[in-house]
Write a structure and sequence with these properties.
Layout: H1 5-13, E1 23-27, E2 31-37, H2 42-62, H3 68-95, E3 99-105, E4 112-115, H4 122-127
Antiparallel strand pairs: 1-2, 2-3, 3-4
Helix pairs in contact: 2-3
Length: about 130
């Protein structure tokens, strides 16, 4: 089966300047697919690092009487910030495996678009005037 003309046009002329890192396209004769996995773990690492740093500093400061006040201030900060950092960590853990994908099938009478995030793939939809 020959490649659909719209797929050939996509392969030859799609502007990839909007494409964020990690987006991959796959095209066949009648179908185009795209996906982007969520790889943003930097904030989860920041959360874990903040807890670890406070725990290590706190453990060291307990044994130095002069720094007990600093330890109390660090614990107060931790108590105020912990719910926020925990919520962010939970969100990133939830989104870990989530990927954004689309599929555009030209095999039928009219193109069939499927996606789990139409806003993210809007440049592709605009290219095909969907």
């Amino acid at each position: 089966m020959a490649m659909h003309p719209e797929i050939a046009r996509f392969r030859a002329g799609f502007n990839t300047s909007w494409v964020p890192e990690g987006v991959e396209f796959e095209s066949g004769d009648q179908v185009i697919r795209g996906e982007r996995r969520n790889h943003d773990w930097s904030r989860l690492g920041l959360t874990a690092g903040a807890f670890l740093a406070l725990a290590l500093c706190g453990a060291g400061l307990i044994y130095i009487p002069v720094f007990n006040l600093a330890w109390a201030a660090a614990m107060l900060t931790l108590l105020l910030v912990a719910p926020y950092l925990g919520a962010r960590a939970a969100l990133f853990r939830y989104r870990k495996g989530r990927k954004r994908w689309f599929e555009l099938d030209f095999g039928g009478d009219s193109p069939r678009w499927r996606s789990n995030d139409d806003a993210f793939w809007q440049p592709v939809r605009d290219f095909f005037k969907l």
